[in-house]
């Protein structure tokens, strides 16, 4: 497999920025809203879903984003910003601690609102 160095670099930079933003946002939200519901991961994942829908739709609308910029924003930034692994781990912690209602709400809301957020991002681009 021959991947261009430029593509690797833009994904590398985008994921670093996304990861740093996730870390900062998760910490701030967890301290601002301390409770059993993992609000930090929830917010970054839903926001990331919106952004990936927005960026992909933008890249397909009259080629507004170059291939490299699309890679940096979607695979890089959104990939580094969102976190399925933390979502899964937090669900295990909720189950272990007996927070079954929070587990159910977190899981269902993440899936339903995540898909709705992607669709919203696409819709907004189509309206502009």
TrEMBL record:
What molecular functions are annotated in GO for this chain?
Answer: fluoride channel activity; metal ion binding
The reaction(s) annotated as catalysed by this protein in its Swiss-Prot or TrEMBL entry are: fluoride(in) = fluoride(out)
The UniProt annotation places Na(+) binding at 79, 82
Q: How is its activity regulated?
A: Na(+) is not transported, but it plays an essential structural role and its presence is essential for fluoride channel function.
Q: How does it sit in the membrane?
A: Multi-pass membrane protein
Q: Where in the cell is it found?
A: Cell membrane
One biological process GO term for this chain? cellular detoxification of fluoride
The entry's cellular-component GO terms read: plasma membrane
Which NCBIfam families does this UniProt record tie to the protein? crcB
Spell out the HAMAP family in the cross-references.
FluC (MF_00454)
Q: What does this protein do?
A: Fluoride-specific ion channel. Important for reducing fluoride concentration in the cell, thus reducing its toxicity.
Name under which the protein is recorded: Fluoride-specific ion channel FluC
Q: Which organism is it from?
A: Panacibacter microcysteis
Q: What is the lineage of its organism?
A: Bacteria, Pseudomonadati, Bacteroidota, Chitinophagia, Chitinophagales
């Amino acid at each position: 497999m021959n991947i261009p160095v430029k593509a690797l670099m833009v994904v590398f930079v985008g994921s670093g920025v996304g990861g740093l933003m996730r870390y900062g946002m998760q910490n701030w939200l967890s301290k601002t809203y301390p409770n059993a519901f993992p609000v930090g991961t929830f917010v970054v994942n839903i926001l990331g879903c919106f952004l990936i829908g927005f960026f992909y739709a933008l890249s397909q609308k009259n080629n507004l984003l170059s291939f490299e910029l699309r890679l940096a924003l979607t695979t890089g930034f959104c990939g580094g910003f969102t976190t399925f692994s933390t979502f899964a781990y937090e669900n295990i912690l909720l189950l272990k601690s007996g927070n079954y209602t929070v587990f159910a709400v977190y899981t269902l809301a993440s899936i339903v609102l995540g898909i709705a957020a992607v669709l919203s991002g696409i819709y907004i681009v189509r309206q502009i």
